[in-house]
Write a structure and sequence with these properties.
The complex is a heterodimer of chains A (about 325) and B (about 220).
Chain A: E1 5-12, E2 18-22, E3 28-33, H1 34-38, E4 45-52, E5 60-65, E6 75-78, E7 83-87, E8 99-105, E9 112-115, E10 126-130, E11 142-151, E12 154-157, E13 169-174, E14 180-181, E15 185-190, E16 197-200, E17 210-215, E18 229-236, E19 244-247, E20 271-277, H2 279-284, E21 295-296, E22 300-304, E23 318-325
Antiparallel strand pairs in A: 1-23, 2-22, 3-4, 3-23, 4-5, 5-6, 7-22, 8-9, 8-13, 9-12, 10-11, 10-13, 11-12, 14-21, 15-16, 15-20, 16-19, 17-18, 17-20, 18-19
Chain B: H1 6-34, E1 37-39, H2 54-66, E2 91-96, E3 110-111, E4 125-129, E5 132-137, E6 142-143, E7 153-159, E8 164-168, E9 174-179, H3 181-184, E10 193-198, E11 200-204, E12 210-215
Parallel strand pairs in B: 1-12, 2-5
Antiparallel strand pairs in B: 2-7, 3-4, 4-5, 6-7, 7-12, 8-11, 9-10
Classes of the chains: A mainly beta (about 325), B alpha+beta (about 220).
């Protein structure tokens, strides 16, 4: 029938939350764990899940499978790790819960944030710090975290320059990036070299051949770089120590780049601004010459929670799903 | 058909607003994610960025002028009218209506009611500071919890002539599509459908001619 759409798919779980992007909005979704259904279970675990528009975020209806004849609780509402419907074009929905429990930001070569509660982060998450006493230069910035240090109550700011230690403050997860690629990025380090190596605070996503303009305010020292346009000749995507771009700008005689101290606020950040493409360079490196094309990355979709009782299942579980929009919705 | 059907007529009006507002939002999001930005630093609210001040506006105008950005609109010559003042040629500053009050307190602000002439003024215009004429919208760009103290950051897109463009894809701008009951209504012709589609991408054409001035509220 017109106005009714159904989409379906399959994936193999990697044991973590899985995001399924949809062509259009959906009103309901069913998820089936083929692996669980095909095996005998000693304890009841989730085999089928259902979501309908109107469920609170993270909720779902779970049907469990067990070989025990009198297994209890075969049908239950799950209140966490269920279904989370997302629309990444909505700016206000990008942020997670504000955590106000930071107790320290270290002065290690790669700064480490310590907090009192369990953070629930995964390596590669992007976190925004705010109101970090003693290190306010970090406040309001987003960082990729956790590749170097990640425990239940600590996480590293993987690409940040060394700082004077900070104390209390807040953090929150940034769930997804701004809508359009390529994006501006904040600079944390620039080397003095014949080809400057630039480190960005968040996984940059740039490609070889892209041209970027530098905005380097006086507070960062290397003012000679301000306003220059460089072509990216190499990128380093090593998660622990990389996230750099190398540009064809000789910065060896420039003043050193120094990230400002807390006393310097307020100031404007140092930025890379994507401005175009050196097609010859891209072709020589076998990179798509349209890598700099403006691209809308927003989507609507569903985040499936993982685990024995989550719709995304456990590692190597084969998951089938079907979702759709209804012709008529009649909520009384 | 639209003249004869008040329901369809109303739906067409609403869809038209939705279409143009969606275009605005896409352009807004592109500018927020890709345009270069500077923080307001002249204020005294203790945050980073601070509230907007005259020195911040002057800094933006200076940067755009240094980059040879052309102003968007001509000056308005002074006239012999009580309480009015001439208006400089200006760049456009596109921002959120949440800045009402904060803008009024900036040194040199002139509300549009004090322009020498009201000819051609837009509904959304709020006023002028130096060479920036401010156009406000309830869907102006806001970055939630993005300041040093976790306050909302308001993005003011200061743009010169031809700084960005909306590029139409696939040879059309937008289509309004109506399907009457005889086509879309099923076996019994019970319903009609109306909708729009468009294919375009916003794109900065010269990054030196657009600057996002970020601020918090006083």
């Amino acid at each position: 029938m017109a106005l009714t759409t159904i989409t379906q798919g399959r994936f193999t779980s990697n044991g973590t939350a899985t995001t399924i992007q949809m062509e259009s909005g959906i009103d309901w979704m069913k998820v089936y764990n083929y692996t669980v259904a095909a095996a005998s279970q000693t304890t009841a675990v989730g085999v089928e899940y259902y979501w309908q528009r109107g469920f609170p975020s993270g909720y779902g209806w779970e049907y469990k499978k067990s070989n025990a004849a009198n297994a209890a609780n075969l049908s239950a509402i799950i209140t966490t790790n269920g279904f989370t419907y997302v629309d990444t074009s909505v700016e206000s929905a990008r942020l997670g819960v504000l955590h106000t429990d930071v107790t320290a930001v270290s002065n290690a070569t790669i700064p480490v944030v310590t907090e009192t509660a369990t953070n629930g982060l995964s390596a590669g998450n992007v976190v925004r710090l705010t109101n970090i006493a003693g290190a306010q230069q970090l406040s309001g910035m987003d960082f990729t975290v956790g590749y170097n240090t990640l425990t239940s109550n600590t996480f590293s700011l993987d690409y940040m320059a060394q700082i004077v230690a900070g104390t209390t403050g807040n953090w929150e997860v940034v769930n997804w990036q701004s809508m359009y690629y390529p994006r501006h990025r904040r600079i944390t380090k620039i080397t003095q070299a014949t080809q400057a190596v630039v480190t960005l605070s968040v996984t940059h996503g740039y490609k070889v051949g892209q041209a970027i303009r530098f905005n380097v305010p006086a507070a960062f020292g290397m003012t000679q770089m301000d306003g220059l346009v460089g072509n990216i000749v190499a990128i380093d995507t090593t998660t622990t120590t990389g996230n750099t771009v190398t540009v064809d700008i000789d910065s060896s005689a420039f003043t050193a780049f120094t990230f400002p101290l807390t006393a310097a606020v307020p100031f404007s950040p140092a930025l890379t601004i994507p401005v175009g493409m050196d097609t010859a360079l891209a072709l020589a490196d076998s990179v798509d010459i349209l890598s700099d094309a403006t691209y809308n990355t927003a989507y609507t979709g569903m985040i499936l929670g993982a685990g024995a009782n989550g719709p995304a299942g456990q590692n190597n579980d084969v998951i089938y799903w079907v979702a759709g929009s209804s012709f008529s919705v009649n909520n009384l | 058909m639209q003249n004869q059907d008040p329901v369809l007529n109303e739906a067409a009006i609403r869809l038209g607003v939705s279409l143009r507002q969606t275009e605005d939002e896409l352009t807004r999001n592109m500018l927020a994610g890709t345009a270069s930005f500077i923080n307001c630093v002249g204020g005294v609210n203790g945050d980073n960025p601070t509230e907007i001040t005259r020195s911040d506006v002057d800094g933006v105008v200076r940067a755009l002028k240094n980059n040879n950005a052309k102003t968007m609109i001509h000056m308005i010559e002074g006239e012999d009218k009580f309480g009015t003042a001439p208006v400089r040629d200006a760049y456009f500053a596109l921002a959120s209506t949440q800045l009402i009050g904060n803008l009024d307190n900036v040194s040199g602000f002139t509300h549009k009611s004090q322009y020498p002439s009201s000819t051609g003024l837009q509904y959304s215009e709020w006023g002028v500071i130096a060479n920036l004429r401010f156009f406000l919208s309830s869907i102006g760009s806001v970055s939630p919890n993005a300041s040093m103290l976790a306050a909302n950051v308001y993005n003011i897109f200061c743009v010169g002539l031809e700084a960005y463009a909306c590029i139409e894809q696939d040879g059309y701008s937008a289509n309004f599509i109506y399907r009457p009951p005889a086509v879309a209504g099923g076996p019994l012709g019970l319903f009609a459908t109306a909708g729009y589609k468009f294919a375009e991408v916003p794109r900065i054409t010269n990054d030196l001619w657009v600057l996002n001035l970020r601020c918090t509220l006083a």
